Model the fold of this input.
Amino acid sequence: MIDLHIHTTFSDGTDTYEEILKKAQEKNLSYISFTDHNNCYVYRELEKIDYSKYYKGKIIPGIELSTTLLGVTIEILGYGVDINYINEKIHELYPYSPEEIEIIEIQRAEKLYSKAGIILDKDVKEKYNKEKYQFSSTYLLEQIKKHTENSKFFKNKEVCQDSLLFYRRCMKNPNSIFYIPTQDLTPTCKQVIELIRKSGGLAFAPHIYIYKENAQKILEELVNHYKIDGVECYYSLFNEQKIEEITQYAKEHNLYMSGGTDYHGKNKPNIKLGTGIYDMHIPETILNNWINKVKYLNPQNFVMN
Done:
């Protein structure tokens, strides 16, 4: 069993890499990958230690990079990347810190929402407290719900209850009245995939179905235009039907397959390392077609399979 989609305290996860390594060993995972957002800093720490005292399996160096495609904010997973190359080049592509982007999103929301007739507090920017609200989506959703007049704008009441759903289906969906464009703050999809490949890695499309009505056209664009290497076929929010559907798509289009829980610790408390929400089991066999094409870590150094 494997888990190739894990976030640590080096991005928006709440578990340290030591805690995750211990949990991975308890779950008897044979392969894992730390895929922090827009950095590979966790691997600099792993290089300093003999991690086998925590975890006996193998680690594929990974990263999850933010970009925009067809107006939708998406992510691309990179596996087998050269961590030194990534960490050297990453600031050229991502000049804004996550905290700066959160502030910019709130500033843009104030203007765009006002034009759309969405009511927010007059001092919405001044009230934002990063210590209280980790994400701008949490704060903005609270602001919107605070004014009952805004209820008419929600076609799907489910998104009112979950800031992550609000982020995906509203803030980052160009079909939504709550859409906040931020493509000028992140690199293009072409730049992201080029970075992964120049570092010796493979580029995968993660959690494609979370993009809802935009999912199919995003996947086709990635496959046909950007020649993506693979897709994440196993994911925490995918039921058996979705897993089978995307697995069949991967086979028909000669794509590599991966799988991961998108573990974030307490920030996504329902998602457990290795098994996700639905007691998912990701088989190691999905690596057979590509594990010999990427680097992985052992307790001492990088090894090329």
Observations:
- The mean pLDDT is 92.
- The beta strands are 2-6, 31-34, 58-59, 62-69, 72-79, 202-205, 230-235, 256-260, 295-297, 302-304.
- Residues 137 and 167 are 6 Å apart (CA to CA).
- The first helix runs from residue 17 to 26.
